[in-house]
Amino acid sequence: MEKERLLEHYMRFEATEFELTGTYHGDDLGAIWTEEETRFRVWAPTAEQVVINLYKTGEQDDLFQNIIMRKASSGTWATAIKGNLNGVYYTYSVTVDEETKEAVDPYAKAVGVNGKRGMVIDLSSTNPSGFTVETKPEFVHPTDAFIYELHIRDFSIDPSSGMVHKGKYLAFTESGTKNTYGDSTGIDYLKQLGITHVHLLPAFDYVTVDEALLQVPQFNWGYDPQNYNVPEGSYSTDPYHGEVRIREFKQMVQALHQNGIRVVLDVVYNHTKEGIDSNFNCIVPGYYYRLTEEGEFSNASGCGNETASERAMMRKFIIDSLLYWNREYHIDGFRFDLMGIHDVETMNEIRKALDSVEEGILIYGEGWTGGLSPLPYHKRAVKDNIRNLNIGIAAFNDNLRDGIKGNVFSSEEKGYITGKEGMEDTIKYGVVAATHHDWVDYSKVMGTSYPWAAEPTQVVNYASAHDNYTLWDKIVLSTPFNNREDRIKMNLLSAAIIFTSQGIPFFQAGEEFLRSKPLNEEKTRFDGNSYASPDHVNSLKWDLVTENQEVINYYQGLMEFRKAHSVLRMTKRAEVEARLRFLKWLDNNLIAFILSHPTEGEVCVVYNANNSWKPVHIPDGDWRVYVKGKYAGNEVLDSNTGGVVHVEPISAMIMVR
Ligand code: CA
User: Fold this and answer.
1) From CA 55, how far away is CA 116, in angstroms rounded?
2) Angle ∠(262,266,269) on CA atoms, nearest 5
3) Distances (CA, A) of 625 to 32, 306, 517, 616
4) Which residues are catalytic?
5) First CA to last CA across the chain, in angstroms?
6) So what's the pLDDT on residue 16?
7) CB under 5 Å of ion ligand 1: residues
């Protein structure tokens, strides 16, 4: 469809009357299977005709029936086909302005290879034994979470994983797996680590990996959505039969739940891989995407298009999709890619919808866009507007991230842990979860000048994620004159900051064993954008678990300590303001604070980013030391009576009285 005509359609949909009268509110979009018949309904309000095509497979030239659908209520087209259609593939041929396009049902629950056709499915046949009655690991407050960001293929693809189902959902079901040294890998390792949530990089059906060519190693992060309500096929053992990926995805979720770990999906509703030729746009041209005044697809995603969440049927699609993943796959949380492209109202509706079905579902996202958007700034779900979002919606704290290690787009720039001066208030900003606290000087905070969060539950604190260099690589690149021992201390200090800050802690898989993405044998160059890099760059190298056991122990110890002290996980800003006080008159690059609890006592935390021992004055008392040097946990390492304590170079010290 040419630009002018697309823009005409777009403008017609802009009219408020359309949103009022043209919206479909039913919950039966897609293909609803029963043994006797399957009912189909698709929303296509501008179509002149919609035909449903039935195929035997997901890719071959084997059309066996097509039926003209009847025009039904509120812009939908519907039909019911008798017989048991389980396993039948289908598409819609939609005619708009006398132009006909074949498209996959956006509500398809199953698809064939490479997501080219939808498939009718009896979902009950895909449930692993015990799945429908499983109980989830207990979880209450967002700030109780430890989120571990993981790519499904990275998890198992390296030879050192010791797993059989390399690169597959099923790798998560393998217990007893070992690395070269005989130490645990895989799900056993995740369980021992003590995390509460695995956050999976995109696991819905995406485009870039060719599912018909899996004998050739291919890698992609997966930020190129195709079918939102279907698992990605390349992670299944058989992408050709729509039911297989569904069953195996559920087996993965079940295995994680059985090991005490909840599951968060990285959802990318903000754009699709295709724009003008996407399923959305073939079915309702000009509706689902924002256009510029010239009729071009606007591009706040940096990927060629951006969806229009403010439009009723796009908003409904996102909410229906999230509820479906929660209900059918038992998903426990959602991370919104480029959340700033979505509007505030949609995000709040999402929170409401998920709250209405289950407590404890995590929602967080990137509080920014990847380019210019026509959506007015005040409507965007960006960090600056987080106060207009429900307190159960969090954004990534990139201010703390960059404060800890330096700007992510520069390899040389240092941060607090690597020796940059004047970073105290940026780190304190993370400690108070980007909320207001009288003892933080916001004019000295890097990248912002005010507390953007209203409550600590609105903030995800982190030092590294899949984007940019790994934490270890960033440390190595920015500290050419430090040795490995210093660099490990820097990494530990980073972890101490993340796990003793208010808010929701998050880390990239392998950060705890010094994950690296080297580009050469000498390990002097590293991959800062590995979205399509080979496995040997991206994969988790499980032998590092043994080689860097001390670092893992420290992360584990910090998580155990955090679990044991509720003052590290406060849910209200007012509580943080009342119970957290920073110590004053400290030397440069020292930060110290005391958290008071009426029954649990007081926790004193000190960070020393100086490469020398530093004395710190703390109140008198019987202090028991739980974290110092390379050690962290719930065992007493040392004790003192307050006054002056000496803190090791580049380290954290944590005491309780
Ligand atoms: Ca795919």
Assistant:
1) 11
2) 135
3) 60, 51, 35, 14
4) 337, 366
5) 70
6) 79
7) 205, 232-233
